[in-house]
Structures are given as structure tokens and as C-alpha cells.
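Dear support,

We are seeing what looks like truncated structure output for some complexes. This example has two components. We would appreciate it if you could run it in full and send us the complete C-alpha cell output so we can diff it against ours.
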Amino acid sequence: MAIRAMLAAVRNRSFTTAVAPRYRFLSTLVLAEHEGGSVKASSLSAVEAIKSLGEDNSVSILLAGSGPSLQEAAAQAASCHPSVSQVLLADSDKFTYPLAEPWAKLLHVVQKKGNYSHIVAASDSFGKNILPRAAALLDVSPITDVIEISGSHLFVRPIYAGNALSTIRYTGSDPCVLTVRSTSFPVVSMSAHSISSPAAIEQVDLSTFSEDDAVGKSRYVKLSSQDTERPDLGNARIVVTGGRGLKSAENFKMIEKLAEKLGAAVGATRAAVDAGFVPNELQVGQTGKIVAPELYMAFGVSGAIQHLAGIRDSKVIVAINKDADAPIFQVADYGLVGDLFEVIPELLEKLPEKK
Amino acid sequence: MKIMVAIKRVIDYAVKIRVKPDKSGVETSNVKMSMNPFCEIALEEALRIKESGQASEVVAVSVGPAQCVDTLRTGLAMGADRAIHVDYPGSLYPLSIAKILKALVEAEKPGLLLLGKQAIDDDCNQTGQMVAGLLKWPQGTFASKVVLDKEKQVATVDREVDGGLETLCLDLPAVITTDLRLNQPRYATLPNIMKAKSKVIKKVTPQDLNVEIKSDLEVVQVTEPPKRKTGIVVSSVDELIDKLKNEAHII
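Here is the complete output from our reference environment:
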């Protein structure tokens, strides 16, 4: 403990110019999410991303919540990656719901105690909501939606709906606060790691968690979500998306049937969600979900810039649209100009059953 | 209650952007600029709340060089009562914008601060959360519905999140950032555009607000994303299935 405090003191000395890369001791705090006793896949991607920050990085995973599912998630986190040296648990009903105010305050408390060089979370709606607030409490500029880590303080992120990439260097003091795009940091399968011994699990001291912040000024009411057996859009191998061309919510069922046949997730364009064909959590695009499946099939999708922003990293893009001039054909690997109301039934008939 | 709305001037959403050959940034000269679509939605929401009798005044603010005034004029033409331009010759990162907004909030004391969830140029999605943290106000981000209860001084916000639609209840004053489906912004009518010419736009600087601009980020370069290989057009479902099976090896 004394050594850590000493190293923390060394790290916190202010340096005047910090242009030349120096060897810096790295210690990263990962804000992880859990559900049903498991650490979420997006958080595991964040842990994977950290490898690119540099060698000699000690990784702590922060989990919060309450009850047995928290303990289960902690056990999983302790063995999820060889570089994880510590799991911190904040066990309190303050963290039952993903409210930004208590969670940002928690990060603040944990950072003040642990003096991490980096704080990382996945760039999903949880991370996007909380990390910038935490960065403001720590008086640092966050770097969000990182798709590539080129150095301990050098990052690439998309701008202008992914039509340009910005390489940013963080020149401030610790901590460097990041959110990373899960699709850019795929998780290496567990069997590839050899975990010699699981990390230690420690309780976060919440006695200093004062209520002078906005904690208590927000209350969680409910979450309305669609009950579905379809795989999660964020990490499905195949995604089948419908656009305005489907014309009705009833017709959208064809997309679902095709998705079922392929074992795929269902996606939608903004137009389809605005028109009420499907709920918002299916939206793919600049301000919706970013996907990078092996196969992305778009039916009745025109291919607006903002939609393409969400699918750029798909391995193979297939587009079916009646309009041969639709912009989607410019990014599609395989395009078929045709009526989706004829193509989808034909595909349903001719596609092999999923393995 | 006063509502403050922060708006940003950005390259119009329909423009096909070009990366400068020297990789220093994106070409913005001679390019159509507009109010950020999410900011328009934020302003529209503020105007609706005022029109429903729950707020007395809508103040639009923008940070940046002189041309911001054009965007503020559009805001006034939509119906904002007055505007504040924080004059700064370059571009600022969200942390600095948040500090400026905090200073403005402390001066103007609004009951609600509305922002777009993200600007379509940098796609940061940070400013609203940061200013809420600095102000110690609760935040409702990615809002697709806002219902104010003036009596109880709370805002019930529906948020679009990964899992669906989340409903939160926030004590006022609060920060809310707007998502696409919150509303459809109005067009400024010609009479309102004319009226807007006589509305006040106050100019201040970050120094006037005692805000120190901290610079802890540096753009090293801006590049184009890797281009996808040109695809092909197939002529039948049979050909498509064949390609997916035997060429792409996906099914």
C-alpha cells in the first residue's frame, strides 16, 4: 500500500511540457456493468481495449449494485482477464439503478482513493451518460467513443458521423477518462487466457460518499423494453435491418422472420423507428447503436449518411432496395435491386436453415 | 421559470464533408452551416414549455466566433426571447463549454438547462453531462419526452437507452439533453425573422465570466476512414445466396 501511495505521489507531480512520450506507470479503472450475475460483454470489450494502453498496466474493475447477482458478477470479473488485479465492489442500493449522479460520484470517490492513470468504460448508453459527468467532477476532458488506442494517451475517434477520424492526444493530468466502442475491441475468448489466480475482491469504502452532490435529486421510475429472443444488436454475428421501405409495423414482421431464420438480430433505421414500426432500441446509426457484424442485411434502407455511420465496420453489407440509385448501394458488398416484398419471401424459402 | 438553451453552429447535416489534404481538420470554408439539429430540438422543447405557460422566458446561448450570432438570430426567429453570445475565436472542448455554461447559469438562474445530446460535428455527447456535474444538478440525457410539473418542481423524462425507454424523475433545476424523437422543430416564419432583428444578443467573453480555458486535448490529425472495397450488384436471390455462401463464407 505504501508503494502505491508513493507511486501515486510521483504520478501526481505536475509536469510542464508533456510532449515526448515517457514511460508512465499505468493503472486503469474499468467501470463495468453487470446484469443477471454476469459482467456485460461491452464491459469485457473495455477490458480488452486496455491492453493497447501499454504494458505494465494494473487493471481494477469497478462494479456497483447490491445483492447476490453483484457477488456473482464480481467473481466472474475477478477471472475475466489476466491483467485484472483487483475487483472493487460498491455494494449499496444507491447503485441499483444506472443513475448518473450516484455513479459519477462513486467514480470520483474511487479515483481520489486509487489515483488511476486511466478510467475506462464502454461507449454504450450507460458509459455515455456517466463518464462525462465523472470527468467534469475530476476537472478533466474525457475522450469518448474511441475506436483505436495508439498509445497510453493517443486515441482515434470518429467525427462527422464517422466520415472523418480524429486522432487526439490527451495532454492533461491523471486520470485520462475514456469511453471505448465495443465493436472496435472484440473480446478474445476466455480459453485463450490463462488465469493463474483470480483477482482480489475489495469493498469500496462508501463512508465518504456524501450526499452534497445531486445524489437523491433523480429517481428511477421504470424501463420499458421489448421482450425478444433475438440476439443483442451490439454483438450479433448477423444483423437484418428494415427501413422505411417496409411501410408498416405489420410488414416488419417479415424482417423478424428472416432474422429468426438466420439467427440474427433485428435492426432498424431512424425512419422506421420514427414511423413507429419498431421501438427505439433497434435503431442503428450515428445516434443509435453502432454494429459491426459479419453480415449486415439492409432491406428498404436508402443509406443516409447517419445510418451508414452505424454500420461502417460490418464485414459484409448486403442491400436490397427497389431504387437503383439509393446511396446504400455505394457501401454494399452485394446489392440487389428489387422489391423486398418479393426478395424476403424468396430468401426465406431458399436460405439454408441456421446451423 | 427561465429556460436556458445552449446551441451550436455546425456544418449542415446534409453536407458531404471533406477532410483537408493537410489532415489538419475538416473543410469548413464555403460550406453550409446550420444550427445543430439536436440543439434545434432543445430550443423547440423550451419554446413549447414556455407556450404551455410553464416558463416565462427562453434564453438561447452559443459559444464561438462572430458567426455564432447568425445561429442565435435563427434561435430568436424561432421564438427565443433573448440570446447571449460568448465570444471566443476558436473552438472549445466540452469541458470549457461546460464551465462557461455553468457561469451563465449562475448569472441567469434558469430552472432548466436544455442542450442537444450531441453535436453532429464532433459527436462528443459530453457537454450536457459535464455541465450537470459542475452545477451538481440532476441530468436527463437522450430525452425523447419531457413532462414538467411546475407545482412539484420536477421533470419526468423518458430517455432512449440501449435497453429501451427509461423513465426518470428529476428535481428542478435540472439539465436535459435532447434526442431526435423529442419533437419536430418549427420553421421560423417570416414575421418572426423580422421581429428577431430587434431582439437583444448580449456579447460576453470567457474572461468576463471568470472562466479559465483549460487545454488538455490536442488534435494530432484528421483523416478519412478506410474506404470499403467497391461491391457488386447481383441479379437474383439465387446469386446473392451463392455469393454469401461460397464467396463471403458467411452462411
